[in-house]
Specification:
Elements (H helix, E strand, L loop, with lengths): L1 H36 L5 H8 L3 H7 L3 H24 L4 H18 L1 H8 L5 H24 L11 H15 L8 H12 L14 H11 L5
Helix pairs in contact: 1-2, 2-3, 4-5, 4-7, 5-6, 5-7, 5-8, 5-9, 8-9
Length: 223
C-alpha cells in the first residue's frame, strides 16, 4: 500500500503542472485569436492555436465568458494605465490627445480588447467598473482642456468613447489595406475638437443613458 500511495503522490504534482501549463497555453492562444478575429472567434479556433483539444479548453474554462473574464484584467487594465498617464501630462489638451492616440493604437492591434472595452457583451460588471474609472479621468481631461481654452465647450466626456469607436472602425477595416490609416481620421477628429472661430455648431452630446443604450446595441453578445 505504501508503494501505491507513494506512486500516487509522486504523480499528482506533474499532473497539476500539466494542467496549469495547458491553462496558460490556452490563455496565450485566446489572446492572439481574439486580437485577430474578435470575440466572435469560436473556442475551436482557440483550441487549435493552443495545440490542444477543445475538450481541454472547456475543462479549464466552462465557456467563452469564463475565458474572456480570465483575460480581462491585464488586457483592459492597460486602458486604465493610459488614462493615468494622460492625467500626468502637462496640460489637459495634451493628456486628452495622449489618451485618444494610445487607446486608438491599442484597439487597432487588438480587436478583442476593443470589443470588450466598448461593449457590454462580456464581463459586464467589470466593463462597467472600467468605464466608471476611465470616465472620471476623461472628464478631468475634458474640463482641464476646456479651461485652457483648447477644447470646444460643447464636447463632453461621453463624446470620447464614440470618437474611439469611429476611429476603431477605420482601424479594423483598413488593417489589410494600410496599417496606420486610422491616425489620419483621428487627426481630423482632433482638429474638429479644437476651439476655433467659425466652427460648425454641434448637436448635444449623448447623456449617460443614451451612451449605455448605444453600447448595448453595438456590443457583441456572449456565445
Amino acid at each position: 500500500m505504501s508503494d501505491t500511495a507513494t506512486t500516487a503522490a509522486d504523480t499528482a504534482p506533474p499532473l497539476r503542472r500539466d494542467a496549469e501549463r495547458n491553462r496558460q497555453r490556452i490563455l496565450r492562444a485566446a489572446e492572439l485569436v481574439f486580437a485577430e478575429h474578435g470575440l466572435g472567434a469560436p473556442m475551436d479556433a482557440v483550441a487549435h492555436r493552443a495545440g490542444v483539444g477543445v475538450g481541454t479548453v472547456y475543462r479549464r474554462f466552462r465557456d467563452k465568458e469564463a475565458l474572456v473574464e480570465a483575460l480581462f484584467e491585464a488586457r483592459v487594465g492597460r486602458i486604465i494605465g493610459i488614462a493615468d498617464e494622460a492625467l500626468e501630462c502637462s496640460s489637459g489638451w495634451t493628456g486628452l490627445l495622449h489618451f485618444l492616440r494610445e487607446v486608438s493604437l491599442l484597439q487597432a492591434g487588438d480587436r478583442g480588447l476593443r470589443e470588450i472595452a466598448l461593449s457590454t457583451g462580456y464581463g459586464r460588471s467589470r466593463v462597467a467598473a472600467l468605464r466608471t474609472r476611465v470616465a472620471r479621468s476623461v472628464d478631468q481631461l475634458v474640463d482641464r482642456a476646456q479651461a485652457e481654452g483648447e477644447l470646444r465647450e460643447e464636447i463632453t466626456g461621453n463624446d470620447i468613447p464614440l470618437l474611439l469607436f469611429m476611429v476603431g472602425e477605420v482601424a479594423q477595416n483598413s488593417r489589410g489595406l494600410r496599417p496606420g490609416l486610422a491616425s489620419r481620421y483621428l487627426g481630423l477628429l482632433v482638429d474638429g475638437m479644437r476651439t476655433r472661430s467659425g466652427s460648425t455648431p454641434l448637436e448635444q452630446s449623448m447623456d449617460d443613458d443614451e451612451l449605455e443604450a448605444f453600447m448595448q446595441g453595438w456590443g457583441p453578445a456572449p456565445r
